[in-house]
Amino acid sequence: MADEVENSEELPSTAGELADQYPDVWEQYSGLGKACSEAGPIDDETKRLLKIALAAGSESEGAVHSHVRRAVDEGVDPETLRHVAILSIPTLGFPKAMATLTWIEDIVAE
Prior knowledge:
By secondary structure, the chain is mostly helical. It folds into two domains: 8-37, no CATH class; 44-108, Up-down Bundle (AhpD-like). 73% of the residues lie in helices and 0% in strands. Helix 1 (13-21) crosses helix 2, helix 4 (61-73) crosses helix 7 and helix 5 runs antiparallel to helix 7 (94-108). It is globular. Pfam families: CMD. Residues 23-106 form the Carboxymuconolactone decarboxylase-like domain.
């Protein structure tokens, strides 16, 4: 799974700025992400869907956008991405799930 971005120009602006200003911090952070990704048996698509769900649960629009963008690039079906938002209704509540659905649509509709 390609969670780690080699080039800071490919990162969202704030993360890219951090990577440029503090390359050692970014390298360690990226390494942690890679180690966590490789620590268990979950397949890549499921990991991506979980990351979307975790981002939704933390109400991080930017993280949802980022993981949805990567999922689309990795060939995940948009209906599968929407299903993540629908699954979140009983856990996160209807308003947060609908916010997540709109964040997913922001990227899917591009």
